[in-house]
Design goal:
By secondary structure, the chain is of the alpha+beta class. It has a single domain (16-99), classed as Orthogonal Bundle (Arc Repressor Mutant, subunit A). Helices cover 51% and strands 13% of the residues. The protein has helices at 15-24, 27-39, 44-51, 55-67, 88-96, and strands spanning 42-43, 71-76, 79-84. A three-stranded antiparallel sheet has the order 1-3-2. Helix 3 crosses helix 4. It is elongated, with a radius of gyration of 16 Å. Keywords: DNA-binding, Transcription, Transcription regulation. Residues 9-104 form the HTH arsR-type domain. This is ArsR family transcriptional regulator. InterPro entries: ArsR-like_HTH, HTH_ArsR_DNA-bd_dom, HTH_MetalResp_TranReg, WH-like_DNA-bd_sf, WH_DNA-bd_sf.
């Protein structure tokens, strides 16, 4: 039996990937993710300085990425660094941007 191309019975399987794409669907968040691919880990101050945005704005974007499971935090004493937590995101970013633009 062939699986239909469009199957409303399995629509729930698209929830998680759709939420991942929604979290990435902002230019600042795409920039943050691409930057983390290049640097491997960064603190909010470094990201804020590079983007020339208020710290609160950067923190809000990082929180959205964190809620979606795209980034995670690593604590080193008082410093909190952000790292990529979902490797699927790397493939998405590499598809959207030139490969050379995503490597350090």
């Amino acid at each position: 039996m062939n699986t239909p191309a469009f199957d409303s019975n399995n629509i729930k399987q698209f929830d998680e990937p759709a939420n991942l794409l929604k979290a990435l669907s902002h230019p600042i968040r795409l920039c943050i993710v691409r930057g983390l691919m290049m640097k491997k880990k960064c603190n909010v101050s470094y990201i804020q300085e590079c983007l020339d945005l208020p710290q609160s704005t950067v923190s809000q974007h990082l929180q959205k990425l964190r809620s979606a499971g795209i980034v995670a935090t690593e604590r080193n004493g008082l410093e909190v660094n952000y790292v990529l937590a979902d490797q699927r995101v790397e493939q998405i970013i590499k598809t959207l941007f030139e490969k050379d633009d995503c490597e350090s």
